[in-house]
Hints:
Blueprint: H1 3-14, H2 20-24, H3 28-35, E1 46-49, H4 59-76, E2 81-86, H5 92-105, E3 109-112, H6 119-128, E4 133-137, E5 146-152, H7 161-172, H8 185-189, E6 194-196, H9 199-210, E7 222-225, H10 232-241, E8 247-249, H11 275-284, E9 288-292, E10 299-305, E11 308-312, H12 314-328, E12 336-340, H13 346-354, E13 357-361, H14 365-377, E14 384-389, E15 393-395, H15 405-421, H16 426-437, E16 439-448, H17 454-467, E17 472-473, E18 476-477, E19 482-483, E20 491-493, E21 510-513, E22 519-524, E23 530-539, H18 542-559
Helix pairs in contact: 4-5, 4-7, 9-10, 9-15, 10-15, 12-13
Amino acid sequence: MSNIDETYNRWLDNADESLQAELEAMDEHEKNECFGTYLSFGTAGLRGFLRAGTNGMNIHTVAAATQGLANYLNKNFKNPSVAIARDSRNKGEEFVKVCVGVLAANGVVAHYHEDVESTPGLSFTVRELHCSAGICVTASHNPAEYNGYKVYGPDGCQITSEAAASISKEINSLDIFEDVNILNFEDAKSGDYANVVDATVREAFITACCDCSVSFDNDIKIVYTALHGTGYPEVMEALHRNNFEDIVPVTEQAEPNGDFPTCPYPNPETADALALGLKYCEEHDADLLIATDPDADRVGVALKHNGGYTRLNGNEIGVLLLNYLCEANENLDDKVCVTTIVSSDLVDAIAKHYGVELRRTLTGFKYIGEQILHLEEADARERFMFGFEESCGYLPGTHVRDKDGISACLLIAQMAAMYKKQGRDLVDVLEDLYKQFGFYKNDQIAVEYPGLEGADKMASVLANIRRNNPKTFAGLKVLGCKDYEEDTRMLVIGDRDDTPDELLPKSNVLEFPLEGGSKIIVRPSGTEPKIKVYCFGLGKTEADAQKIMDSLKSSVKELLA
């Protein structure tokens, strides 16, 4: 009998009755998919299909992860506590109850949100209640078939690589059925180790988001969609408190719904997810569309321009927000902006122009949050002005340590309203920046490697690129290779004398600068079986930049073959 069959039969004998029908109906292919490997716990926690088995998100894998976390906390913290939240995903409420039951059984206090809550709201809760850790049950912008389990540290950032390794070691040492201590949720709730998060915490969070406001312009018509997620009450409240009154919500997408019936892939970076919102824009002649993903940490944007509606990507909004904040701040001498290595190079030019220090971290907002921590440790938290990553994540304050769609929605609305008052829209402003600093184009190509052999194939492709660096790419000479496994120096633009020389964690990322200021960056996804290639094209005109970008994109599949 194979190991897969042994594990499958053990689940048949021991798994919760809610999974029995699914287990009994599995064919051989499904057994291999569900039991051929284990969900991997990393710095992004867990993420996977909602299904039975060791390779699925279900009550047993969630309970084992929480037991591993509890063991880690009890070894490293005195009287540990954990804040818990969930977005609108299916099984989210059930998984939160499992988390509460396991933590309570292990003497760890659980502060849980009864209703859905955004990821930035969870990050805020961790800090507000001085918790040892946080758990957010979310699969972010993945399709409806997924759920996930993010773990946060006491600083409100997603856990460090070191903490993830320690928790993973604890999880891997467990027997998923015999070594998990768990109380029934009702029993846990009646004891001393489970508390509902008070409404004052959410109130404090919304107030902190509103404190990020930088202007009083609000004469603009907005369509807002929560994409069936958590964002509606908090985004609407933040906008109303700042006197935005002409807001049209996409009613079909306002309420949480884990089936995502009107947008099966609720990613605000994609056109399909914004389709219904754009229809509302046309019907109501709106100036601006803003959309948050299910856990309300990302924001998608479209706006009226030249009689139609134009979508802006994460890099474009990040560039615009940085420029807007630089224009709005009277003293920029000591301000710090933080972005990632895969974000637009246009921010370098803007930072130099305004004299702002720009730091580039690895991909992942926890690294941006880590820079805020470094500023705090130097008693200089007020220097932080803005952080963003190209995947539609923005943070204009220090109230949380993750991307925050609520404060970002407010800031984007104020920015659009201010420029409207000047007779310009956001596309006009972006075009002016290109004319001033150069035409920067950015795009991303992802190649999937599904199935049990996908991870091995990804590793093989990346190893081959590392061994055989391309000499030219899309007709452009390759000027070198920065391998983040070897060269981990953090890039800093406009650093001051007291800026630390910092090393980033080693990472499986390859960066190839190309002649003329273009470049490509290759890295594996941290949450999906994909290799991502980020293409950066720089030209003297928009046509030149687009021609370079088209050539770069057409060469990517050959590189990843």
